[in-house]
Design goal:
The protein is mainly alpha-helical. The chain folds into two domains: 81 residues, Winged helix-like DNA-binding domain superfamily/Winged helix DNA-binding domain (Arc Repressor Mutant, subunit A, Orthogonal Bundle), CATH 1.10.10.10; 145 residues, GntR ligand-binding domain-like (Four Helix Bundle (Hemerythrin (Met), subunit A), Up-down Bundle), CATH 1.20.120.530. The chain has ten helices and five strands, in the order E-E-H-E-H-H-E-E-H-H-H-H-H-H-H. The protein has a three-stranded antiparallel sheet. Strands 1-2 form a two-stranded antiparallel sheet. It is globular.
Length: 233
């Protein structure tokens, strides 16, 4: 379920019984940013977000400060926040860091992926395909993240995933705009290449598939400079 106004959308999450309000507000805002529902450059207010989420301003303020510490938003003053713009050089730098971290995470996870894990990755990949086939880019993005998150999380000694998700947070709003401009779909299914590498227990092949998957995402954003200029208007 989503909640919208004329400027942005919030991707809502059902509140679990063991989740307090502060945690829930953070999860909703984090998810909305990660899948690009809130566009860069749009000013948000704590009161406006609180009204939309039907909570007091305090949990919104705490969630935004936490997101600011992760470079996902910029707090302009006590009442306004904004998703920061990403310049083309920074965009490239963040993606190169994604490649370093995610290929490493995949390699470290490989020895821990059993048949059950492989089956779950296959299921998650089918959700990605179904979402994009239905034209649902938001769900496609979230499902793609779920595939990668599960893959890297197979490593029980997990230290890189929080850093990877921080990059997803920073890139999410910008990438969503790029996805709206896509003129083609992925010519090669890199997830299938990754799954085959797992079946082969081939770390090199797996790293190549993950890197190719990330680079395909960059190449399909036709003109990063143009998007950046549009956001500055």
């Amino acid at each position: 379920m989503t909640k919208t106004n004329n400027q942005y959308t919030l991707s809502m999450i059902d509140k679990a019984e063991d989740t307090n309000v502060n945690q829930w507000v953070y999860q909703v805002l984090r998810r909305s940013l990660m899948c690009g529902e809130i566009r860069p450059g749009i000013a948000l207010t704590i009161r406006g977000l609180a009204d939309k989420l039907e909570v007091s301003p305090m949990p919104v303020r705490e969630a935004l400060h936490k997101l600011a510490s992760q470079a996902a938003v910029e707090v302009k003053d006590n009442r306004r926040v904004m998703v920061p713009l990403i310049s083309p050089p920074k965009f490239k730098a963040l993606y190169e860091l994604r490649i370093l971290l995610e290929t490493h995470a995949a390699e470290q996870a490989l020895p821990h992926i059993d048949d059950q894990g492989l089956n779950e990755l296959m299921r998650l990949d089918s959700l990605v395909d179904a979402a994009y086939a239905a034209g649902d880019k938001m769900q496609g993005s979230l499902s793609n993240q779920a595939f990668h998150r599960y893959l890297y999380g197979c490593n029980p000694i997990q230290v890189s995933l929080p850093m990877i998700e921080s990059l997803w947070l920073q890139l999410g709003p910008f990438v969503r705009i790029g996805l709206s401009k896509l003129e083609m779909y992925y010519a090669n299914d890199r997830h299938q290449e990754a799954l085959q590498a797992i079946r082969n227990n081939d770390a090199v092949q797996l790293k190549q598939a993950i890197e190719a998957d990330i680079r395909d995402g960059i190449s399909l954003i036709k003109d990063v400079d143009q998007i950046y200029q549009e956001l500055q208007k």
